[in-house]
Design a protein that fits this description.
Helix content is 35%, strand content 26%. It is α/β, with parallel strands linked by helices. The protein has a domain at 17-81 and 151-240: P-loop containing nucleotide triphosphate hydrolases (Rossmann fold, 3-Layer(aba) Sandwich), CATH 3.40.50.300. The strands form 2 sheets. The chain has a 6-stranded mixed β-sheet with strand order 6-7-8-3-9-10, with helices on both faces. A 4-stranded antiparallel β-sheet has the order 2-1-4-5, covered by helices on one side. The longest helix has 16 residues, at 225-240. The radius of gyration is 18 Å and the shape is globular. Bound molecules: adenosine-5'-triphosphate (ATP) and magnesium ion. The site of magnesium ion (MG) has 3 residues, from helix 1. Residues 14, 17, 19, 37, 39-45, 208 line the site of adenosine-5'-triphosphate (ATP).
Length: 243
């Protein structure tokens, strides 16, 4: 597999506070990597620097071996608070990116309605975000990002605010959406089970400034319940004994 996204020697500071230190992460094409680490260790900062929203003091981000210095359409982002447009309907929120590319109206309608169906949002096309449940908003957020066919998706605790059952459902929606699209994913999550369920690799981060404590590969095809428990314990041990 070729390398899709590379975070190279990244260091980020806010004023005097060093938040990320010499971080190196390589993500292969189509790989799903999760970042876990304690609150405040710098996970969101890593996502924001990778997306090009904040400038690092050191290091670079490469997409397909080309250095990127600003946000690009090839990288889609999904935040915990959805960031939906409150003044736009479900339909228009999902259609937003397609309209930027002046896709024809018929094509937009077809593609948006396909996503509305697969996200089980039928009948809610004309609702506004404030009229939706949290899980529905998150589904609109997922659809709005994935419909633009990004090559890489960065997710910052997308399901953090959801109740347990809704979260499980959303994980399945995500798996279904990514399906055979070969999208490369970098997911930040607090939920170790979520990381184990969704990823090919889990990167365990230290307390601030975030460094890599361990990288744990997951064989999603072969993993047994026992393996899952062992991995879970290993990650907890790393996080609890750090620093
Ligand atoms: N815009 C900012 N300006 C100054 N300091 C910031 C800014 N954003 C984050 N920080 C600081 O950087 C550190 C890391 O924050 P970050 O949001 O990256 O952590 P996190 O790992 O995502 O935490 P959580 O799991 O709670 O979301 C924190 O100490 C925070 O106070
Ligand atoms: Mg965060």
């Amino acid at each position: 597999m070729t390398e899709k996204l590379r975070i190279r020697n990244l260091s980020v500071k806010y004023d005097k506070l060093l938040v990320v230190k010499n971080l190196d992460i390589s993500i292969k094409d189509g790989e799903f990597i999760s970042l876990v680490g304690s609150s405040g260790c710098g996970k969101s900062t890593i996502i924001n620097a990778t997306a090009g929203f904040i400038k690092p003091i050191k290091g670079n981000i490469f997409l397909d071996n080309i250095q990127i210095n600003q946000p690009t359409q090839k990288i889609g982002i999904i935040f915990q608070n959805f960031e939906l447009f409150p003044w736009k309907t479900v339909f228009e929120n999902i259609a937003f990116g397609l309209r930027l590319h002046s896709t024809g109206e018929k094509e937009i309608k077809k593609r948006v309605m396909d996503y509305i169906k697969s996200m089980e949002l039928n009948g809610f096309e004309n609702y506004y975000p404030r009229q939706l449940s949290e899980g529905m908003k998150e589904r609109v957020g997922l659809a709005r990002t994935i419909i633009n066919n990004p090559e890489v998706v960065l997710m910052d605790e997308p399901f953090g605010a959801l109740d347990y059952l809704t979260k499980l459902k959303m994980q399945n929606f995500l798996t279904q959406l990514l399906g055979n699209k070969k999208i490369t994913v970098l997911l930040v999550t607090h939920d170790i089970d979520e990381a184990i369920k969704l990823s090919n690799k889990i990167v365990v981060l230290s307390k601030r400034p975030a460094r890599i404590l361990d990288i744990i590969p997951i064989d999603k095809e072969k993993i047994s319940t026992e393996d899952k428990i062992k991995i879970r314990e290993r990650i907890l041990h790393l996080l609890q004994n750090d620093g």
